[in-house]
Amino acid sequence: MGLQQQLAEYFEFEELGTDLRTEVVAGLSTFLTMSYIVFVNPSILVGGTEGSPVGVKPGIIVEGVSYAQTVQMVAVVTLIAAAVATLIMALYAKRPFGQAPGLGLNAFFAFTVVGALGVPWETALAAVVVEGLLFILLTAVGARKYVINAFPTPVKLAVGTGIGLFLTIIGLEAMGIVVDDPATLVTLGAVASDPVAIVSVVGLFLTFALYARGIRGSIVLGILFTTVIGYVAAQVGLGSPAALTGQLGAQATYDISPLAGAFVTGLQDADALAFSLIVFTFFFVDFFDTAGTLVGVGQVAGFLDEDGDLPEIEKPLMADAVGTTVGGMLGTSTVTTYIESAAGVEEGGRSGMTALVVALLFLVSLAFVPIAAAVPLYASHIALVVIGIVMLRNVVEVAWDDITVAIPAGMTILIMPFTYSIAYGIAAGIVSYPLVKLAAGRRGEIRPGHWALAGAFVLYFVVRTGGVLTGAV
Questions:
Q1: Phi/psi class of residue 104: alpha, beta or left (left: φ > 0; alpha: ψ in -120 to 50)?
Q2: Which sign, positive or negative, has the C-alpha torsion 174, 160, 431, 456?
Q3: Angstrom distances, CA of residue 156 to CA of 97, 167, 394, 403, 430
Q4: Does the N-terminal or the C-terminal CB of the chain have fewer CB atoms within 10 Å?
Q5: Mean pLDDT across the chain, nearest whole number?
Q6: H or E element: which one contains 399?
Q7: Is 185 helix (H, G, I), strand (E, B) or coil?
Q8: How far is it, in rounded angstroms, from Cα 82 to Cα 437?
Q9: Tens of pLDDT, residues 75-84
Q10: Residue 473 within any structural domain of the chain
Q11: What letter would DSSP give residue 99?
Q12: Higher pLDDT, 250 or 319
């Protein structure tokens, strides 16, 4: 029996109405649409100090290691985590879904946990590992539906849109299109005079055009094109090379030892209350982001049953959980299923073979890790704006004509970008939900779990902002 026939039997090509060529093309399509994460994840997770190429920025800072080398370390870890999770998806779940460290979750890691809350990055990694292990346990015992039922539906539907706005403002700020202002908090940057902003605007609209045309890999192409424009602009003297270019001459490094296992130190230094709330938020966002993506892409592929559920959803959820755990142990934020998997499904991908191709391409990409440090921050953050805008479409699922739904959903969406925190947005939605339901006389729609979650977040805000624990997270 030849390899092609073995693959056909293992992945059930005949039953799914597909073939090897279709699956390979589908895998390539999915990889191209989600491969931007190799550039973007390091640019978000890696922090900077005074004098670094990105200035002072929250995130992973390894003592004695340069910014460029840290970027390459995180790029390596990103590829390994994505390959492991997607390989499990291919061989165990046998679904055509690609996985990698998720946008939004990495921003929560860097800007909220490490930045706003002041938690060491090692402790943030420990929270990712614990969340992954918790996810594995709940998936193994089939407790998914019980966890889902504990959260208000409006909050679940609004999280994606809120994260989209959060990612967008992070991206626009990195590009110099949005800047801080003492009078209005934020305002339009010098888009007609700042070289970074000019190059960013050109690159952003080029990426929009490619994306609108349905070009596979449009985000990656847009990032690379913007990077080239920046280098050309610096060469002809239109701006400072330090601002317009990345670390092109950075020495390649595949030594991830400063990151791998760092979560152990983080566990030792964790404050119990703060740590549990961080784990809770990682878990919440990952859980519903993954579940929503699986159902959404599963619908495109025709996998859903008559009740709108994805059969054996525990298997792809397990792949996500293992990927998250491995990624946290190695040094990256939470792994999740990518909505870009729909690109491969639209090409006809129906089996785990699609995911297998994606996993193998992630491994092959390890040879190109040095490129990650050569991409300047503003170019990589184009992906945040494009994906952030795409994520806004989730807002149509909210029943805005019902005020008891609109208030918690609106609070979830608006608080995230305005406070620079995914956690605060989720908390605002959860706290407001039972209150407005009670005020509207719809007590029957409130479950004890809603009150318990709302009470927990109120307590957290008292502790966090009331000075109850001086110096605590």
A1: left
A2: negative
A3: 21, 18, 10, 16, 10
A4: N
A5: 87
A6: none
A7: strand
A8: 41
A9: 999 999 999 9
A10: no
A11: E
A12: 319
Query: Which stretch of DSSP H or E encloses residue 181?
Result: strand 178-181
Is 217 inside a domain boundary?
yes
* Structural domain count, the chain: 1
Q: Output DSSP code: residue 46.
A: B
Distance CA 473, CA 469 (A): 8
Q: Is residue 470 part of a domain?
A: no
Distance (Å) of CA 55 to CA 49, 110, 227 = 6, 15, 19
At 77, give phi and psi (nearest 5°).
Answer: -65, -40
pLDDT(360) > 90: yes
Burial 78-107 (b: 16+ CB within 10 A, else e): bbbbbbbbbbbbbeebbbbbbbbbbbbbbb
Bridge pairing between strands 185-188 and 335-337: unpaired
Provide the angle, in degrees to the nearest 10, between the axes of the packed helices 121-140 and 314-330: 160
Average the pLDDT over each of 55-64, 143-152, 326-335 and give the range with the smallest value. Answer: 143-152
Q: What share of the chain is helix, strand, coil (3-state, %, to 5)?
A: 70, 5, 30
Strand partners, 57: 48
Q: Which residue range(s) make up the domain with 126?
A: 3-465
Determine, yes or no, domain membership for 471: no
